[in-house]
Write a structure and sequence with these properties.
alpha/beta; 6-stranded mixed β-sheet; 47% helix; elongated
Length: 660
Amino acid sequence: MTVRPNFMWIWAVLIMIIIGYSFYAGGDTQPLAGNWNTVRKMIRNGEVERITVIDGQTANVYLTEEAIEKYRNGGDEVLKRMPKEGEQLIFNIGSVELLDNDVKEAVAESGIEENPVSIEYKNESNPWGNIIVNLLPWVILIGIWFFIIRTMSRGGGGAGGNIMNVGKARAQVFDKDDAGKRITFKDVAGLEEAKVEIMEIVDFLRKADKYRELGAKIPKGALLVGPPGTGKTLLAKAVAGEANVPFLSISGSDFVEMFVGVGASRVRDLFEQAKQKAPCIVFIDEIDAIGRARGKNAGFSGNDERENTLNQLLTEMDGFQTNAGVIVLAATNRADILDKALMRAGRFDRQIQVGLPDAKEREEIFDVHLRNLKLDPQLDRGFLAKQTPGFSGADIANVCNEAALIAARHDKKQIAKEDFMAAIDRIIGGLEKRNKLMSEAERRATAIHEAGHATVMWSLAECDPVLKVTIVPRGNSLGATWSVPDEERVHVTNATLEEQLAGMLGGRIAEEVNYGTLGAGALSDLERATKMTYAMVAYYGMSKKIGPISYYDSAGTRDTFTKPFSEQTAHEIDQEVRRIMAEAYERAKRIIEEKNGQINAMADLLLEKETIYAEDIEPILGPSAQSAKQAEKTDGKAARGNDTPAADPKPENEEETRKI
């Protein structure tokens, strides 16, 4: 092996030699630092030969040969180091005139007639040195300024890392020739309706001539609207991959900058880049960052920077100049706050709803995220899809990752069904807290509470079937009753909501019947029940007293400081809410008083096992009301039409998988 010599050792040795020479070899050549009193004494003794004044500031003193020998061989340790050649002493003077007078007085005081001390004046200053010394601070300041500017330009100066590029759009470009990063509809599970609707844009980019022959124009843009995590960004990338055209991606927040005019400049630059690559797709993620409705924010004037950016975007999308071949896709989960001018036809011609996946689509999404995992061969993906109603694609990806982490934590070689169930519990309920300090009385009260929920829900056909009951603390809850619907509901009636209200109140009533007290643990149950009841009365029009009136504001344009109804109507709404809650309370109480023995038996089983499932509950409570209802449907005794429209709007997004 060849060893490369380290030249740093050579430099270190040279530096040590120079330092040693300056200390030892050069010690007898340097003049001694003196003062006027010492020099005056030497002049009186006739030992000074001449004095040389340099630049009117420093005086170099030259002694006679006899004086040099005298001091070098004398007893003073300092004067022993006096050099033989050159100047022997050096000191600073105040002024030339003062030095001249002092020397004459010292010569006169010596009384030696032959004591001529001559004074010479020399100017050895370097004009370039003075210039450098004067300019050095400015050079340092300019260097620091350039360093700061370069640092700022790297962080926020736009493309190229230059402060002059601060107005450039920082869009990520996915070129059509880059096959490694290409995403197609095969990589997007679910979203079948959205794919069909957006496929026309892809077909236009592929076969533009077919549409132009009929006089059709390419859509200017499409807005993807849906909850977070449903795959809006992934769908936009798939459109670019299917169309095989360049894809420019940028976030709405990238247009927001502290400098005035930067946002509008970046919009212009973005569309200039798009025109050069046309036909292409421009994707603006989270467009609500710059697309909020104008004139509704009292904290900003009409000349707000964000509004200027929006105005420029409106102009570029459908202004005086046309952008041929540039399609704008945008994604948001706040379509209700976007400006109306942005939403009109000609800019965003289509709004594509990207909603939460159903059971079939969730199964397809599980297939995508389980590709690279080592799974138990017996794992049923359909079962996982049924256990995750209301989950988005991002939630399902999180479930798969959490299940893999749990399996690895227990040193398993494969990921099994129980790992996925634990992951679902972890995501919905929070982290397990088995070490939480609870007395036996508190644990039994929790068991009674959860058994009350389970009993009421087990006894009412419109409640979702109970999956399991646990008294293991998770997150902020001491226990939970999990329920999963047999079939995902698209239409909800007042009878269904009233029975679900009774199920929510079952835990509080069970504690009241068994202990005669009211616990604070029912806070979340009461909160959810109250919100649902107000929605029934004020939004869904399910109260005969209030009538078929909805005060729901789907557009979000209503003033939040005023109510859309009178004080009398507000009083009537409160009365109806109390009536519905009281009826649900009485219904749940009748069930609990009738089956209190089974509730205590279930509580005993919970204290023993901590977690029980539907197969453990059935021997105690018998067949559930849901199973009886399902049997009636199977036998054809209770046929139900499927042409009833879905409930819309639904202001309270009530999860189908509920934790009570």
